[in-house]
């Protein structure tokens, strides 16, 4: 019987809601150089360009809705009697809008800003620019999107690693398995004997490490998996 679940999600779970993935042929990194917009060095070189990129994405996510996969994970969280943690690499808020609560945004959130001067975080819905003022320290010129760029430490790693060490089921959904440390979670969960499951459109870079895989669109494979698990047919 399963008593503790950790679920990792990536861009693929939000694809059918209309948010682009990163590494698919029509993904974001096919159109934009990640070094320019998703590294601290890119931000230092051209902050206006980075603000423009995230302003566009922040605006775009406001027009989309959670899909059946987000809803199924929220249902699982509320129906499952044991420990549950959802770790998302996504910076959109579709999981919480679907009803998820036990959730970590390991790569940050579009709707938050981080002040490089005081380290304060604040809710942020509007456009961000070099003129934006920090609500905490009231300085201008230091605001950045509260997202984790390449070379930066993802958030809440200690809490995530403790949950991985204690779980007996690890499920990876809609992620290509190209970005560490998230790509290594499957092996961390396996060390303590967890059953590992991949649900993705196609085999990911790490597919061989999983005990089970189901490949197809998230809006089909995730609700199917949740249904099997809650009915006892998926242990
Ligand atoms: C569907 C579907 C459907 C489609 N249904 N599925 C050289 C330079 C710089 C850094 C490094 C370097 N070498 C190594 C590094 C480290 C780096 C790294 O791993 N790089 C790799 C490229 C090798 N990692 C880091 O820098 C991380 N920090 C770090 O390691 O700190 C040190 C540390 C060490 C030990 C412990 C702890 C810390 C930070 C990584 C930050 C990633 N940031 C981004 C941007 C966030 C903000 C933003 O959104 O702009 O995060 S990059 C981007 O990739 C974003 C994503 O969260 C992340 C993962 O992408 P994801 O979700 O997997 O998307 P895709 O597009 O790759 O895959 C989508 C999948 O869905 C595909 O498989 C599709 O098939 C599938 N799919 N439609 C189901 N309908």
Describe the fold and architecture.
The protein folds into 2 domains: 1-18 and 66-107 and 154-235, TPP-binding domain (Rossmann fold, 3-Layer(aba) Sandwich), CATH 3.40.50; 20-63 and 108-147, 2-Layer Sandwich (SIR2/SIRT2 'Small Domain'), CATH 3.30.1600.10. The protein has 10 helices and 9 strands. The chain has helices at 12-15, 28-31, 34-37, 40-45, 47-61, 68-79, 94-98, 157-166, 185-191, 218-230; strands spanning 4-9, 83-88, 103-105, 108-115, 121-123, 143-147, 169-173, 195-200, 212-215. It has a 6-stranded parallel sheet with strand order 3-2-1-7-8-9, sandwiched between helices. Strands 5-4-6 form a 3-stranded antiparallel sheet, covered by helices on one side. α7 links the parallel β2 (83-88) and β3 (103-105). The model has no long low-confidence stretch (mean pLDDT 97). Residues 10-12, 15-16, 21-24, 27, 38, 89, 91, 107, 147-154, 157, 174-176, 178-181, 200-202, 204, 217-218 line the site of ligand BJW.
